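Troubleshooting: if your tokenizer reports a length mismatch, compare your output against this known-good record of 740 residues.
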Amino acid sequence: MSGAVLVAVAAAIGNLLQGWDNATIAGAVLYIKKEFDLEGNPSMEGLIVAMSLIGATLITTCSGGVADWLGRRPMLILSSILYFVGSLVMLWSPNVYVLLLGRLLDGFGVGLVVTLVPIYISETAPPEIRGLLNTLPQFTGSGGMFLSYCMVFGMSLMPSPSWRLMLGVLFIPSLIFFFLTVFFLPESPRWLVSKGRMLEAKRVLQRLRDREDVSGEMALLVEGLGFGGETTIEEYIIGPADEVTDDQDIAVDKDQIKLYGAEEGMTWVARPVKGGSTMSVLSRHGSTMSRRQGSLIDPLVTLFGSVHEKMPDTGSMRSALFPHFGSMFSVGGNQPRNEDWDEENLVGEGEDYPSERGDDSDDDLHSPLISRQTTSMEKDMPHIAQGTLSTFRHGSQVHGAHGEGAGSMGIGGGWQVAWKWTEREDESGQKEGGFKRIYLHQEGFPGSRRGSIVSLPGGDGTGEAEFVQASALVSQPALYSKDLLLKEHTVGPAMLHPSETTKGSIWHDLHDPGVKRALFVGVGLQILQQFSGINGVLYYTPQILEQAGVGILLSNMGISSSSASLLISALTTFVMLPAIAVAMRLMDLSGRRTLLLTTIPILIASLLVLVISNLVHMNSIVHAVLSTVSVVLYFCFFVMGFGPAPNILCSEIFPTRVRGICIAICALTFWICDIIVTYSLPVLLKSIGLAGVFGMYAIVCCISWVFVFLKVPETKGMPLEVITEFFSVGARQAEAAKTD
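Known-good structure output:
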């Protein structure tokens, strides 16, 4: 997956520029005040520092919608241009007003980066390492601050430091970022699919995944265009086709799904089991518990948790069966022929789609991805020829992570995607059917078969053949609708073109229950993060380290007070880097929710120690040691959890169609709260004192822990489209709980 890693590192350079800018202005403002005589004009001094914040807030109001319209890559290119032009303006700035203009342009670049880099990385990263790659912006941002503080500190030792050079040198890394965005970064494959540019999306995915066969993920990206439909949770028993036999506990044959492997003769059968899956049972149990506890614990949290609790230690994609699940899923029966919809035959919007050949056989293991038997319904449908329905031609089996085989319909995190045709009779005897999309996920460990029925995991029997028990999210595919069968404008056999699915009212999509629930989680995390005390601790750090004797030590070395403050800030930033590196490793192992729940208590304890040390009279050395240790612990555990996790979660929980605008809403919340906290801190320090401020921050951290425990689900290792599907299911469960 080196392609995805390199792309994420290149995109995260934008956050390095953000951190660089934040640190540079902190040092440069000391010399700006002297040149423009702003000692008696604190409002202008504050405006120079805050202009970047104002610019970021303004650009965020429209960045998400424009990114959904024009794409992620053009907006990243624009951010690099704004960084570059802003740095040149600041390098020139003959007066304070031109400097303000440069700071505003720089703020526009910051706003675009903060909004778009998490989106871009989430949409290009594989689920297994998405948390790690999305922690990179936190690491590069802190790294940029450290490098900038070191640069400014070095310049401050010169006889006549130039603040213009401090600010203007940003044009060098911004130029590097520009070349990376133009010549190296591809467009997001999910955005390309949403616009119907299938061939481009396929090529990008092949580059990002370092393999040719990306049919499974291509299918997933298409399915991600639809959301908000009726989704059910079912259970399937999967085993060799010649071993799984009829049984009263297993549904009838017409509901089975054949899974063809890439190797000759390798065929598996998935059959729905009556009674519901462990996932569905746990989700219903969670919904019941929520009702009993006054709806405090969100059913969504229980639903997501059931996936991770039942995931095998080795992961379903590396189990005895799932690596061999191939790239063809079909309903049982003999299909005489197929009508392919190959993405290579797709043309631009508004053009005619050529008819497809139909000479593939189901006996050929390199046949199309989806097929189904002819039903009595489709004989009367004008746009479906008798035979089979298929889409997305696949390639040969490829090797996944760690060199193990991965089925071409693997979509990451142990999930597989499949489709089936269902048919039933209504009260009048008329037959009606539906095309269903299935996300399969293994539960527990491979089991064994005994007699005529496979034994459940954990059974004491031994048998002849292995099987897996899988939960499934079943819903209507994004491109298929029963209504489309009677309309003229279809692509292939009764399929809607992907670009058609994104047409409609954005505001209508934002009112979807799943989207509203995700917005509640995302906005809530951004508000609580900003009020958890990071700005106050950063403000107080130089004073704490001064009390610890660092200032005296530096002055004895002949370093001025202004240079000493810059060096102290550099040391503070440097402490964060190892902690962020640890977070990068743990984000996909422990998970986002687990990291938040384990690191927030450390933040609370650190803040309480700072409160006590400022209220209780104690020896100055003891006070300095306690304060220093508390600050260091606070920084380290903040950047491990509450620093990166909110942005990571916000980039994961929204559907593709509204991801840009939803993350823009979360980012706008972030900037507004940042402004409130920054400008209220001096007032609070005067009114309630330092101990009162830290006590207030500790209370907010307590509220944050409760919020995460009750409302924030665990999303590690799950494909983005599956996450949004779970939000839709969880939102309906929550509404049902309120109704009951």
